[in-house]
Amino acid sequence: MAGFTPYLGFKGNCREAMTFYQDCFRGNLELTTFGEVPADSQMPPEAHDLIMHAQMQAGDFVLFGSDGMAIMGGNTEPGSVSISITAIPLAELQQYFDKLSQGATDVQPLNKEFFGTYGQLTDKYGVNWMFQTEQD
User: Fold this and answer.
1) Region for residue 25 given its phi and psi (left: phi exceeds 0; alpha: psi -120 to 50; beta: otherwise)
2) Tens digits of per-residue pLDDT, 95-119?
């Protein structure tokens, strides 16, 4: 079964916001900067300390966040929210992607990345979707 997680977009204050949410919900927080990933050489130097991916988990509640929506081609509005579909087989992920792509804009096709297969789109209703799996 697919996992659905809110993915929050920030413009440089992801660390601060996710630390705030960690405190509010008494959760565990994991942060990864752009400077810590294999693709760091492809990022502008000013992005190296920005958060590529944050995950805050408090019980069954999970929030994802990133400063990198603009860098990665996604929604760049502060406070933007995407729905992330994760942890499913690639074939199932592809089915969701194909169906949600009908009439979609700003489509980034599913591609292999260093962290797994990833893609994103804005559906015909203006909802932002992100797709990611480590499975083949």
Assistant:
1) alpha
2) 989 999 999 988 899 999 888 899 9
